[in-house]
Amino acid sequence: MRRPLSKSQSVCIVLLWAALCYIVLTTVERIDGPVIMTLIISAALVFIPVIKSLKRG
């Protein structure tokens, strides 16, 4: 069984995801469907484990 993430690890993961989103949104020429779907999928992949870990710990 995996260890739950600590709060500081969760904060770091969320900040890294936010920085990545900022970089993507400032470098793309057009914000259209594929970019939005990529951000939504990445948010799900980041926030679901973080929320589960915070509920456990």
Q: Can you put this structure into words, describing what you see?
A:
The protein is an all-alpha fold and 57 residues long. It has one domain (5-53). 79% of the residues lie in helices and 0% in strands. It is built from 2 helices and no strands. The chain has helices spanning 7-27, 33-56. The two termini are 14 Å apart. The mean pLDDT is 87.
Characteristic terms for this protein:
57 residues; 0% strand; mainly alpha; elongated
Overview in brief:
This protein has 57 residues and is mostly helical. It is built from two helices and no strands.
Q: Termini, distance in Å?
A: 14 Å
Oligomerization: single chain
Query: What is the number of domains?
Result: 1
Main beta sheet: strand number and arrangement? Answer: none
Number of strands: 0
Indicate the structural class: mainly alpha
Radius of gyration (CA) equals 13 Å
Keywords: Membrane, Transmembrane, Transmembrane helix
Helices and strands in order, then pairings?
Blueprint: H1 7-27, H2 33-56
Helix pairs in contact: 1-2
